[in-house]
Design brief:
This protein is an alpha/beta fold and about 280 residues long. The chain has one domain: 3-Layer(aba) Sandwich (Rossmann fold), CATH 3.40.50.1820. Helix content is about 40%, strand content about 15%. Helix 1 packs across helix 10, helix 2 crosses helix 3 and helix 5 packs across helix 6. The radius of gyration is 19 Å and the shape is globular.
Length: about 280
């Protein structure tokens, strides 16, 4: 199991290597690197793909502290430094999307592109207290059966539910450290960069899901990003990379190849004077 000591914490990582442009994948709250292998398999022949598990999650160690979006961003930068990577495309799901906002604001000079996958709202997480309390009880009680049931019953495409994968995801969620579970949540609740989204000039792809509770926040945030494009998956919930790996890989590969394509960029292309070859 490969690990690197990053900011005094042993973090699990995997690096496909190669000479292609670098894509770094970051998971969501209580998630792990398990989300990404099917996608990486479709991209690794063209790109150098790096995955990591955040401190306190997946196969990384469980330190006493450091569970904040700002620290996770610092860990990403320290990891790419350790791997000798200067610039990279960052792909972050959910909480990892919040980390992406931090990277886009504070470390834009290191980013080629930014991909936000059903990210937390730029204004922070807002959940009814009773729902959060109920979820906390299930987690602290280690109620795996109920958590799996919720994943299966709550799937936007029941016909494609994989109960084995659902159990594996719940097992990962239950394995995170208490610090990760509690402090990461608080960091997401306290997060608020909405007024700064206009500063993110990095070419950005917002990937959202029509059946995700974050869809409205994602679209609202997309409209505030000055150099961004949008892709929305229909009849898909929050776990986009797991539920649609093939289509996700295709969308990501298209963005890597073509960048931001919007009505504005097409108008600029039309207005550009034709190139004349002389000689």
């Amino acid at each position: 199991m490969p690990t690197r000591t990053i900011n005094a914490v042993e973090l699990w990582y995997e690096d496909t290597g190669g000479a292609g442009e670098v894509i770094l994948f970051h998971h969501g709250y209580t998630g792990s690197h398990d989300s990404w292998p099917p996608i990486i398999e479709k991209l690794r022949d063209r790109y150098r793909c790096v995955t990591l598990d955040a401190r306190g999650a997946g196969d990384s160690s469980h330190p006493a502290d450091g569970y904040s979006l700002d620290q996770y961003a610092l860990d990403v930068i320290a990891m790419v430094d350790a791997l000798g990577i200067d610039r990279f495309t960052y792909v972050g799901h959910s909480m990892g999307g919040g980390v992406g906002y931090v990277l886009g604001l504070e470390y834009a000079h290191r980013l080629d592109r930014l991909v936000l996958v059903a990210p937390i709202s730029s204004g922070g997480v807002a959940v009814v207290a009773a729902l959060r309390d109920a979820n906390r009880k299930l987690w602290f009680d280690r109620n795996e059966d109920e958590l799996v049931r919720q994943r299966v019953v709550g799937a936007a495409r029941p016909e494609s539910v994989d109960e084995v994968r659902a159990k594996a995801g719940v097992s990962r969620a239950l394995s995170v450290s208490e610090g990760h579970y509690e402090q990461s949540w608080q960091s997401m609740c306290d997060f608020n960069v909405t007024d700064r989204l206009g500063e993110i000039s990095t070419p950005t792809l917002m990937i959202a899901a029509a059946a995700d509770s974050l869809i409205r926040a994602n679209v609202s945030d997309y409209l505030l990003l000055p150099n961004a494009t949008l892709h929305v998956f229909n009849r898909v919930g929050h776990l986009i990379p797991q539920d649609e790996p093939d289509q996700f890989a295709a969308v990501l590969g298209d963005f890597m190849a073509h960048g931001v394509v919007t009505a504005a960029t097409l108008a600029e292309r039309v207005a550009r004077p034709p190139t004349t070859n002389i000689g």
